[in-house]
Amino acid sequence: MLEHLSYERSMADELVKRLHEPRRFIQVIFGPRQTGKTTLAAQVAERCQLPYIHVTADVPGLRDLEWIAQQWETARTLAKNSGNFSLLILDEVQKVPNWSEMVKLLWDEDSLSGRPVRVVIFGNYPFELTKPTF
Asked: Percent of the chain beyond pLDDT 70?
């Protein structure tokens, strides 16, 4: 399915490699609009060969913490059904108020229970990473 993506993002190899390492970190990619973050997300999803869900908070009305929890639960179900890791890609996450608290809560739950969900977060700059809550 990469044929429709005309340009291979150089960061894709590194991100795929990190997603196949032992689960330790949430991968966070941020930068200005129109720099290829969504293209990178699509390329990584295809290349990592894991069941995945790629969602964006760019749609009005989906910008709440429950929406993040629902997407996370879908990724958990994908992992459980496949017997493998799953990948959750959250795009435009900065549009969800207080997103970092929910992400931390769900990541910590998965870490404590051994759930194999890998997470990549994409967002536009300025990204609220200067004042993390976790």
From this structure: 84
Q: Which candidate, 1, 9, 3, 18, places its Cα nearest to that of 39?
A: 9
pTM of the predicted model as reported, rounded to 2 decimal places: 0.82
Tell me: the pLDDT tens digits for 74-99?
Answer: 999 999 998 889 999 998 888 888 99
Q: Which domain covers residue 61, as residue numbers?
A: 25-124
Coil, strand or helix at 120: strand
| Long-range residue pairs from 110-116, CB within 8 A, at least 24 positions apart, any chain | 110/76, 111/23, 115/76, 115/79, 116/23, 116/79, 116/84, 116/85, 116/86
Per-residue model confidence as pLDDT tens digits over 97-134: 899 999 999 999 999 999 999 999 988 865 444 444 55
Quick check: is 117 in a domain? yes
For residue 18, is it within any domain? Answer: no
Q: How far apart are CA 69 and CA 53, in angstroms?
A: 13
The count of C-alpha atoms lying within 13 angstroms of the C-alpha of 34, restricted to the half-sphere facing its C-beta, is 0
- Specify the DSSP element, H or E, that contains 118: strand 117-124
Q: Look at the chain and report how many structural domains it folds into.
A: 1
